[in-house]
Design goal:
By secondary structure, this protein is of the alpha/beta class. The chain has one domain: TIM Barrel (Alpha-Beta Barrel). The protein has helices spanning about 5-15, 80-85, 95-105, 125-135, 150-155, 170-180, 185-195, 215-225, 255-270, 315-325, and strands spanning about 45-55, 65-70, 90, 110-115, 140-145, 160-165, 200-205, 230-235, 275, 300-305, 310-315, 330. The strands form 2 sheets. It has a 9-stranded mixed sheet, covered by helices on one side. Strands 10-11-12 form a 3-stranded mixed sheet, with no helix packed on it.
């Protein structure tokens, strides 16, 4: 991440937030003057969780991962939204950001993974932090792609990897599941733009959801094969129903073994360039022995499906080792 480029682009990012045009909502809130946008974000970034993540795709681990408040979609299956409601948040200052980067480096992190919520709604605040932090390698932008073309253009040359979600096959699912019927359309447009500028910087992630093979998984994977040839694809069959979903909700269940195999078979038939999961037990080792110095405890969630699949969220090094010993390879989110 080049801090000089971040500094150059900060002025334009501030203009996009006054009034706010950072995403298709274009709510018009004067974020710089302290107004809160529809996404819930204000003039500064707020952090509610951070740790070194060992459970993402092998291409981007280990990563010092920062969860920020603020999101412009309302996905009813979102696990992180539940956590935002009960975990306290703190202002992400330059001093705190620097301490987190140092702690991550000592723990062996090779990347800095920014997510939320949606990090793009915090773009002005993050560019300011990046400009003050100095250069650091391996910036991952973990995004739902529901942002304006202008906002994502400001990230070109700054971000090493866009871990980019394309979840929805059409407007009906975007509206019913995320509150934005154009969510899929906008995500595809941003993916094409990033791919056109730097195809190797893009990983397209698709979450397979229960009951959404024909409406979402099939059309999304076929579109990727047709419009983004050779792009890296992270096919996620680790859907974990959040506790907030009502009984009887179609998305309130695990994927069936048939749904998992069907998605994988389609990806293979299409010749998609699938990413691989990170190795367990994790490597390389920490750079120092004091890997947890200054960090808060992380709540690790483990779930077992009726078919016996083991799911794990917030995979820190120690938890990964324990789970592998007890249950063997697990599904990782």
């Amino acid at each position: 991440m080049n801090s000089a480029i971040a500094k150059q682009r900060l002025k334009r990012a501030l203009a996009l937030a006054e009034p706010c045009q950072l995403c298709p909502q274009r709510c018009g809130a004067n974020r710089i003057q302290g107004q809160i946008g529809l996404c819930g974000a204000g003039p500064e970034a707020a952090l509610f969780l951070e740790y070194v993540h060992w459970g993402e795709d092998a291409d981007i681990v280990p990563a010092q991962t920062l969860y920020l408040t603020g999101c412009n979609l309302a996905c009813r299956f979102c696990q992180t939204a539940e956590e935002q409601r009960f975990l306290p948040s703190v202002r992400l200052t330059a001093e705190l950001f620097s301490r987190i980067l140092e702690r991550g480096w000592r723990a062996g992190a090779e990347y800095v993974n920014i997510l939320g919520g949606e990090p793009t709604v915090n773009l002005p605040a993050l560019l300011k932090l990046f400009a003050e932090a100095g250069d650091f390698p391996g910036l991952v932008w973990n995004t739902n792609l529901y942002g304006s073309a202008e906002a994502f253009l400001l990230l070109d040359g700054l971000v090493d990897v866009f871990m980019a979600d394309i979840k929805f096959g059409g407007p009906r699912c975007g509206h019913e599941l995320a509150g934005a019927q154009d969510a899929g359309e906008v995500a595809r447009a941003r993916a094409l733009e990033i791919y056109g500028r730097s195809p190797e910087a893009l990983i397209v992630r698709h979450l397979v959801m229960p009951g959404h093979y024909e409406c979402c998984t099939r059309p999304v994977l076929e579109w990727i094969a047709r419009r983004l040839p050779g792009v890296r694809v992270s096919l996620k069959t680790v859907y974990l129903p959040p506790k907030s979903l009502e009984p009887g909700c179609p998305e309130n269940r695990f994927l069936s073994p048939e749904e998992v195999s069907r998605a994988g078979e389609l990806a293979q038939t299409l010749g998609l360039r699938l990413t691989r999961d990170a190795d367990w037990p994790p490597s390389p080792p920490p750079r120092t022995s004091a890997v947890n110095s200054g960090g808060d405890p992380v709540l690790v969630e483990v779930a077992i499906s009726p078919e016996g699949r083991v799911y794990m969220r917030h995979i820190v090094r120690e938890a990964a080792g324990v789970l592998r010993t007890v249950a063997g390879p697990a599904e990782k989110e």
